[in-house]
Specification:
elongated, ABC transporter transmembrane region fold, Rossmann fold, 12 strands, four-stranded antiparallel sheet, about 575 residues, 2 domains, alpha/beta
Length: about 575
Amino acid sequence: MQNNKAKIKNWTKQQTKIGKKAVLPLIILGIISSFIAVALACCVAQILGILLVPSLLFSLGFDPSILLASFVILFIIKGMIIYSEDLLSAKIGLKARHRLRKDFVQQIMQIGPSILYRQSGGGLATLIVDQVESLDGYFSRWLPASVLWLVSPLIILVCVYLVQPWAALVIGVCGLMVPIAQAVFGIGAAVAARQQFLAMTRLQARFLDRIQGIATIVLAGRAEDEAKKIAQSANELRFRTMKVLRVAFLSSASIDCAMIVAIILVAIMDVRHFAAAEQGAVTIPVVHALFALLIIPDFFAPLRSLALAYQDKAKLTGAAASAVELPEIGHEVEKTVILSKNKPVSIVFDNVSYIWDKKRGRAVDQISFEVAPNSTTLLIGASGAGKSTIISMLLGFIKPTSGKILFNGQDASLINHNSLSDLTAWIGQKPVIFLGTIKENILFAKPDATQEELQKAVKAAAIDQYLESLPKGLDTVIGEGGYGLSGGQAQRVAIARAYLKNASLLFLDEPTAHLDPVTEQDIFKSLVDLAQNRTVIMATHSALGQKLKGNHIELDHGHIIAQTEVK
């Protein structure tokens, strides 16, 4: 727990350091805006002073139209600065979100599918989409506000002090009350915002996971129970949100109270100047008093911006808590080895072990075997024997805890990922089918394939046998996960994809695990044809699969217990 807190602190520090460099132009614009606000207040105070005390016009020393022209110019400049600030803050937020999403996606891609053994897909989706999106305010609002809340009021206070010292003292004291009130309410606001953010994250992750498993929920008769649990999560989010709003209201009210008190006190102190003006006396201090009153809202504006952005700071902590849960990526050596596409591939497992969980022991325990180029090797054994773990290591989803895997004599850890990926085709227990047409799903392996290559793959996978039963043939739209196709039909799409890629390596992980015997036999016929002139490793516990020729390696609890050549 303590280690997690340290990680969260380091991650937030790192993001703050990166963000502060990006918001420097925004801070500079904010400082310029403060000087413009002072100049505007001066112009308005002079104009109002002349209207209240006409005799001031004679002591002005320059044409009054200059005041009006200056006001208009300053007003336009102020508007341009506000527009530039909005534009720049939007760009800073967009750039920060793009960077974080890119970093998270790259980290997840480097870890590979094994991350789903530790974290839910819903949680990862929430981190990349919603939590990153919520950090827009931290980079575009909070970071500049965390500097300007001190610098801008100080600039204004110095300017007020030069013309009205007592007013500066009053405004300064009232301003000091705001951080004290913010500290009191801010602690509650930070806790409430963090709890609300976590409640939202839990609801989003739960909802996405339940949508993905909706068929299982309905068939298990748990739809009503799950709906109640989602409703409870939604109610928790509603409760947390209302609490955040209550605390935010109190925080904002404290700033309003301080500002009103400052205006009242300054007005009371300077009432004598206005009384003198009514009696017709020529009095310059009335302009100073007006300036002090007019500048007060600008003095409190940066403090208000800080209070409004305070929740954005809490969101960074919430995102950090999710970010540090991602498994750490160890230092990787540079992968420079490129495998030849024209050379058949051999594979060697040299004393390889893998541990998923130390409490459960080794899933694969110091196994060694060789796979000759263009040969077929079958990994046979009951569930839990270690077959899928070996396939996952071959695919690079996970790395051996100890030992080496060699491709053509080269250590897998030194081989360029893209080089190995180009040579590899994989068909798992459940084919990965995307929402789209059958044609699009097959072409996923080779988007630039010709029509002739596509038709050969379709025929080789025997997809043409059921195309006539589909409304639009290859252009028939199928749902995510192959919805609209039978298990065998979906598996044939995966086989066609592997045919089209025409890779030297073919890894098969229980490709007929969920099929009926007749469909299984047809699928194996297609796989035998696909295996020609390729290096194939297939994990199976199917009785039919065990009759296939090749090197049969029998596994039991991560150990090789038998190895025979079937011809």
